[in-house]
Amino acid sequence: MSPRKNRRSAPGPTPRGGGGMWAQETEDGPDGTWIVRNVAGADAAKPYRCPGCDHEIPPGVGHIVAWPADERGGTDDRRHWHRPCWQARTRRAPRVQRSRNAPRY
Predict the structure, then answer these.
(1) Phi, psi at residue 77, to the nearest 5°?
(2) pTM higher than 0.85, yes or no?
(3) pLDDT digit string (tens) for 36-57?
(4) Which of 10, 33, 38, 74 has the greatest count of CB atoms below 10 A from its CB?
């Protein structure tokens, strides 16, 4: 029996990784309109702090990146969320309230 051959993917930009285009969508909610991007675990290279639960999202864990859809929203407004925390953002608030001068981590 001969080994299985790998099939080539269709030419064109890839949806994730390698500098390709990212799949993102717009979500409307009671807290405004957001641009939402899914990040696969393989693409998550750095740790982030989830604003929903105030826990760390370790590298290699898939999550959501969201930012306001208004024109002033830039890269500084992006937040990385656990998927369940993003879905529950209107039902709960973070347990830990930081002061303005508190460290992020």
Answers:
(1) -90, -5
(2) no
(3) 999 999 999 999 999 988 899 9
(4) 38
